[in-house]
Amino acid sequence: VRVFGVSLGIGGVLFAGLLFGHLKISLDEHVLEFAREFGLILFVYTIGMQVGPGFFSSLRREGLPLNLLAGSVVLGGVLLAYLIYRFGNVPVPVVAGLFAGATTNTPALAAAQQALKDVPNLDPLVRTQPGLAYAIAYPFGIMGIIITMLLIRYVFRINPQEEAARFLSLQRAAIPKPATMNIEVQNPNLEGLPLEKVPVISEGGVVVSRILHDNRVEVAQPDTILHVGDILLAVGPKEKLEEVRLIVGRESAVDVKSVPSRITTRRIVVTRKSAVGKTLDELETPRLYDVNLTRVSRAEIEFTPTPDFRLQFGDTVLAVGEEHAIQKVADELGNSPKQLNHPQMIPILLGIVLGVIVGSCPIFLPGLPAPVRLGLAGGPLLIAILLSRLGRLGPLVWYMPISANFMLRELGIVLFLSCVGLRAGDQFVATLTQGDGFRWLLFGAMITLVPILTVAFIARYFMKLNYASLCGLLAGS
Asked: How far apart are CA 398 and CA 402, in angstroms?
């Protein structure tokens, strides 16, 4: 249901649960507990599987400033939550729920509920307070981020279409799409030199796929001997190709690909478990059968690989060679696209079990009434990030099709939010209209707005952050 173009999205499930809870329609307490925890596990595990492969690299390069800004939003919310507890006379369980709802952070709510669950002899009503406060703060948690984006757009007079176009051009510039160039060997110093000894080519970034020698096209290999007059078909970023041209000779009008030969190209999908985790240098059949792997596509990005590039399940490589030879390479790599659509059930379930075990391990800290645990929010998330980054362990491949990932994630968050709503629904209306609900609502709005407005202004005014990146930063944080 949209109001002025804005909807609650999956958060609508929470309010449906609150409605049923208010009407005293509920489920057995044990069923609710199981469904809530199982839904949470599915939700955080699938998030970890999606972000894991790029998680560590996102902390480096240009991702570091974005992560620092996002961390500032989170820490700003934590600071405000503490000040509300310290000076606002609000109980800790309520503050934890307000923080989780104001930041629409479902795993944070689960962590708070897990912590309360481990405290002995606690009033059952106290255990419901985080979910109740979460439900009260959640709607403005959604509205606040949208208001902030609109406010930044208005204050800085931003044109979103122009910003999006600029952002895409920057992204393409960061990972340029491979180009091709036919280069004639004219440098006499390269006569009789192996291809791997040519400067620039040996440094990586450019792959020579074919060579025209004496009117015959051959697949280029590192030990292929060059002669003056040969024409190389090189693949790589435009700037790198220009460097190769300056060293090798001049651009040729002859298109090596158009010269009749038995050499062809084919895209091969990496689906064989034995090939996952290997570098291109470690593959046997390309060398044995004179096949060159010139391009790799991963996550819709195509690039020229270096010899130490490590393959992952689902990568697509472009092979150049004779048809029978390419088939041998395809056999080694798997090339079974159907497997990409089949979720690997045993690794998924094993990963969930490991996550639950890690989340359940107690960490004893002095001064606390109960041991600290990562819980069912932290354990599966941490394990999923590590396993998806690892990719493969023995016969187990931690690859999840994106459709299966979304399905499990949506199922998980629906189960979790519905159970939270059912549990808190019987007190929600009374708290909002008769108790401290209105104060809680204001405190939640403060936790939502103050950190993101501050960081958004700093990021745009001082750091000149692109509006598309800024919106992603605010939504993610």
From this structure: 13
Contacts of 442 (CB under 8 A, 6+ apart): none
Give dist(CA 206, CA 305) in Å, integer. 8
Separation between Cα atoms, residue 112 and residue 100, nearest integer Å: 9
Which residues pair with residue 397 across a beta bridge? 392
CA distance 257 to 254: 9
Looking at residues 280-299, what average pLDDT do you find? 85
Mean pLDDT of the chain: 86
**Can you list the positions of beta strands (E) in 145-303?**
179-185, 207-213, 216-219, 231-236, 249-251, 263-269, 292-298, 301-303
Structure-token pair, residue 42: 């599915």
Q: Name the 3-class secondary structure at 303.
A: strand
User: What is the predicted pLDDT for the residue at 62?
Assistant: 58
Q: How far apart are CA 286 and CA 232, in angstroms?
A: 19
**For residue 297, what are the CA distances in angstroms to 150, 172, 315, 464?**
36, 14, 6, 31
Helix (H, G, I), strand (E, B) or coil at 277: coil
Strand partners, 392: 397
Q: How do residues 407-422 score in pLDDT, each as one tens digit? A: 999 999 999 889 888 8
With 80 as the cut, is the pLDDT of residue 58 above it? no
- pTM confidence score: 0.68
DSSP state letter for 370: S
Q: What's the number of CA atoms in the CB half-sphere (13 Å) around residue 226?
A: 26
Contact 43, 10 (CB under 8 A): no
- Rounded CA-CA distance 118/123 in Å is 12
Degrees, nearest 5: CA angle 174-179-185: 125
User: How does 159-195 read in b/e, with b if 16+ C-beta sit within 10 Å?
Assistant: eeeebeeebeeeeeeeeeebeebbbbbebeebeeeeb
* Torsion angle defined by CA atoms of residues 92, 93, 97 and 102, in that order, rounded to the nearest 10 degrees: -10
